[in-house]
Specification:
Layout (H helix, E strand, L loop, with lengths): L8 H5 L43 H25 L4 H31 L17
Helix pairs in contact: 2-3
Length: 133
């Protein structure tokens, strides 16, 4: 059996808890009215999803950086590499940004939490009761 250690891109991408890598850090089912709704704790291991007030302020900068490069590089390649018109490249960029918006927003929060909370394979030995919230 393969041991899970260190940072897991797969767990971060799938929006899993960084400590147990089993519970989801966002509420299910997804609601478009509140796309960033998170339970207070991981339903599996009890890890707090917002360690302190304003914790996800840094995630806002991450999403800005990621989306900037994610949109700028393809637009430049379309205009200068494939000789698309600027208007066509801008239309592509807007559609791509609209499709990727929620994934980037939630992914930045997931990455921010994964950078702070480390994987702990022995979480079940700590006897932390999971929250129902």
């Amino acid at each position: 059996m393969k041991m899970k250690t260190g940072f897991s891109f797969k767990a971060m991408w799938n929006e899993k808890c960084p400590r147990c890598r089993e519970g989801y850090i966002f509420e299910k089912p997804f609601r478009i009215s509140d796309p960033l709704a998170m339970p207070k704790r991981c339903p599996v291991c009890g890890q707090v999803t917002e360690p302190e007030p304003g914790f996800y302020y840094g995630a806002m900068f991450l999403s800005y950086i990621v989306s900037g490069f994610m949109l700028l590089i393809p637009a430049l390649l379309l205009v200068f590499g494939l000789k698309w018109s600027v208007e066509a490249a801008m239309l592509f960029t807007l559609v791509f940004a609209g499709i990727a918006y929620l994934k980037v927003l939630r992914g930045a929060r997931s990455l921010w939490l994964h950078m702070v909370v480390k994987y702990d394979p022995g979480y079940d030995k700590m006897n932390i009761p999971p929250s129902k919230n």
